[in-house]
Amino acid sequence: GMFQINEIDALARNVETADYYDGLALSRGRAQLTRAHSNMTKKVLTKQKGAKAAQLWYKANKAMIDDTSHLLSDILEGDKLSVAKVSVAANLIEELTRK
Length: 99
What we know:
- This protein is mostly helical.
- It has helices spanning 5-12, 20-47, 53-60, 62-76, 83-96.
- The chain starts with a helix and ends with a helix.
């Protein structure tokens, strides 16, 4: 997909954590990513109805969506994530639900 959420989550499963709190942060980041994805989907479908809902949402938020998509691609560069990258990715997706 445009935001590569499934790829981020799949890579996040293999992130090595240094201690309990790293593991907790990673777990919370993954949960936030899932929640943000769900909220974004609901928002798109609530604001617009029908098959073109995603297209209309994209047109209305193009600059922000494109910026987020590029940042997420940068995060995925190298196919290795960190706890910080998972957290940033989740926050970027969550920001889309606020617009």
